[in-house]
Amino acid sequence: MAISDETKDRFNAAVGVAKVSLASTVLQTSYSSFYTSMGECDEESMTIVTVGWIPFVIYVGYKNSYPQPSLIKLITPLA
């Protein structure tokens, strides 16, 4: 059974559309997972910054002060 050129062209067009559709679906899935992971990264970094801000400020103040207080007075100010 011979296949006509018109049938071959229709088949190739259908396969081409399927390839483009599949590629766009893969890209959309990749982008959505990328943005989801970036959102999770943003939440984690905000938690780290929020929790670490005060100890960082205390450390910088301790290192830049003259004369440096003893470490026990830094940890327990009432000592």
Automatic annotation (TrEMBL):
Pfam families: Tom7
GO biological process per UniProt: protein import into mitochondrial matrix
The keyword Transmembrane belongs to this UniProt entry's keyword annotation: yes
Top-level taxon of origin: Eukaryota
Protein name: Tom7-domain-containing protein
Topological category with respect to the lipid bilayer: Single-pass membrane protein
Family per similarity comment: Belongs to the Tom7 family.
